[in-house]
Write a structure and sequence with these properties.
This protein is an alpha+beta fold. The chain is built from 1 helix and 11 strands. It is about 25% helix and about 35% strand. The termini are far apart.
Length: about 180
């Protein structure tokens, strides 16, 4: 597997074809192709080249996927017994890049990213599955409504039967005797 070590933004990165990296922000627009000419090390399946400090003529091409900011880093400073506190945050600006090609010092192509396959977006997959789910849900809902109607009819019949029975069983109210009796 071929790879290269490049230097950008004061840092060194080991990269290979079709890899996605977070690097210091580049002043280019998203979708543009960028060349990194500070190649410090190249490794092919057969050859290895070490720069002194760079390899002349070698380069790495990449496309910028996104220019954004990283997560917030909170910085909190406190001096004890002085009632002095300071809290602030920092969001580093970064660029997401995808390595497309790696060239050797004589311009020979060492590695190339495979063409990106057309992906079916997750949203469209969800929409299709949601439509199927909605169809199933509608069918289930209709069945549930039918069951509820049946239950209502049954409960209404039971209520009618109970009311007729209670009408038949009704008697004159019985007077209850008081618990305490008065002595004469």
């Amino acid at each position: 597997m071929s790879f290269a070590v490049i230097q950008t933004g004061g840092k060194q990165y080991k990269v290979s074809a079709s890899e996605i990296l977070k690097i210091e922000r580049l002043n280019n627009q998203e979708g543009k192709t960028v060349e990194f000419k500070n190649v410090l090390f190249l490794n092919d399946d057969k050859n290895t080249e070490i720069g002194n400090p760079n390899i002349q003529g070698a380069k790495v091409e990449a496309t910028i996927l996104k220019n954004t900011k990283e997560k917030t880093i909170l910085v909190f400073k406190k001096r004890r017994r002085k009632n002095s506190r300071k809290k602030y945050g920092h969001r580093q600006q970064i660029s997401l890049i995808r390595i497309t090609k790696i060239f050797s010092k004589n311009g020979k192509l060492i590695a190339q990213a495979e063409p990106r396959k057309e992906k079916i977006s997750l949203k469209s997959q969800k929409l299709e599955s949601d439509e199927k789910r909605k169809l199933k849900a509608d069918e289930v809902r209709k069945l549930q409504e039918q069951e509820v109607k049946k239950e209502k009819l049954e409960t209404q019949k039971k209520m009618k039967i109970q009311t007729t029975k209670s009408d038949l069983l009704k008697k004159k109210p019985i007077k209850k005797k008081p618990l305490t009796t008065k002595k004469k």
